[in-house]
Amino acid sequence: MVERYAREEMSSKWTQYARYAAWLEVEKAAVKAWNKLGLIPDDDCEKIVKNAKFSVERIEEIEAVTKHDLIAFNTSVSESLGKESRWFHYGMTSSDAVDTGVALQMRDSLKLVIKDVKMLMKSIKKRAKEHKYTLMVGRSHGIHGEPITFGLTLAVWYDEMARHLKNLKETLKVISVGQISGAMGNFAHAPLELEEYAMKELGLKPEPCSNQVVHRDRYARLATALASMASTIEKFAVQVRHLQRTEVYEAEEFFAKGQKGSSAMPHKRNPILTENITGLARSIRAHAIPAMENVALWHERDISHSSSERFWLPDAFITTDFMLHRMNNVIANLTVMPENMMKNLNQTGGLVFSQRVLLELPLQGVSREDAYKIVQRNAMKVWAEIKEGKPTVNKKGESLYLGHLLSDKELREKLSEEQIRECFNYDYYTKNVSAIFKRVFK
């Protein structure tokens, strides 16, 4: 239901009606500005602001003849007015209404996205604190490395989203720009004060120096900001998909009662939500290309940008909004399995402690090269035994690696049994978790 509501709220900002409503808001702001400058009488201004309206059906009917959407819009609105209609769209060009209207749509839509990001960050923070000290194995190249905590993984996610939040807030300022500068942007038919009054009314900043359009590097900034964030969300999704693999099975998407995973195999519990997110991220990134290509227009403007923007702007916002809500749902309801995390951590018979032993030997005067040889040769024995299917603990109940190290005469000349056993203490790997959390969750 939350995802559905999110889609409807964002989608409502990109309907044909919403598009024309934004234009009308801009046109009314211009009328008020002209009134303030003394051109439009108070009575005419009041009538336009109060009575101006449009019909989507009528606009489409007129556009079928005129082949021009803004003219069709103006005609439809004028039909709702009397003689005062002569002031509607006075001194303006199409892009003044269209680009400023789109700025309103982008601004309000990006505010929703920012709200979504904060929601996701809140869920990540909650789960991070919950699993602050939940031990798991860290992996590089997909291979077991050293012990970490699941809370640290989530802290990484939170920190990355914080950077996107900052970028989106800055992008909001970049795109919240409009114009009423006339046909070539030279203010020949309307003073700069008109634009300034109108933009203040709309809650936008004036484009400092426009030609006939609001410059498309602003739109490109938006597209790349959304694309970059989509890549991060995909990063989270891929991690969840990996954790849900049968061979790993440390976490999984919530599997509801009555849910089905496969039409053929009733046992399946598939990571469908995060797989879906991966696909959505690919689509959002694809919109960055036309947005950047739209920056270069012929001279003061052409309309090569228009057709793609009618597609990528609503699609990027609606998809991003949906993806953020879906990822939030995944994180908030993620099933975490600490027992399986610990099981996997012990899967390699203590090999995850190899660096701890390696770093102890130079403290006893052993060269790094010799220390590496001692530590690695015992590690290779463990790999060979794991390959043969041997248990990861020996007959004494010790990890295979610990057993081999304790039996290594060269190593025992440098480290006591107590020193070697201390190297296998998990607390060593969690001692700085609180400090890291303080950095991230200020």
Question: How would you sum up this structure, described in words?
Answer:
This protein is mainly alpha-helical and 442 residues long. It has two domains: 2-340, Fumarase/aspartase (Central domain) (Fumarase C, Chain A, domain 2, Up-down Bundle), CATH 1.20.200.10; 351-423, Ribonucleotide Reductase Protein R1, domain 1, CATH 1.10.40. 63% of the residues lie in helices and 5% in strands. The protein is built from 20 helices and six strands. It has helices at 2-11, 16-36, 42-51, 56-66, 69-78, 94-130, 150-175, 192-202, 217-244, 272-286, 288-293, 304-332, 338-345, 354-360, 368-387, 400-407, 409-412, 417-422, 427-430, 433-440; strands at 135-140, 143-149, 177-178, 205-206, 251-252, 335-336. The strands form three sheets. Strands 1-2 form a two-stranded antiparallel ribbon. The chain has a two-stranded parallel ribbon with strand order 3-4. It has a two-stranded antiparallel ribbon with strand order 5-6. Helix 2 packs across helix 6, helix 6 (94-130) runs parallel beside helix 12 and helix 7 runs parallel beside helix 20 (433-440). It starts with a helix and ends with a helix. The mean pLDDT is 95.
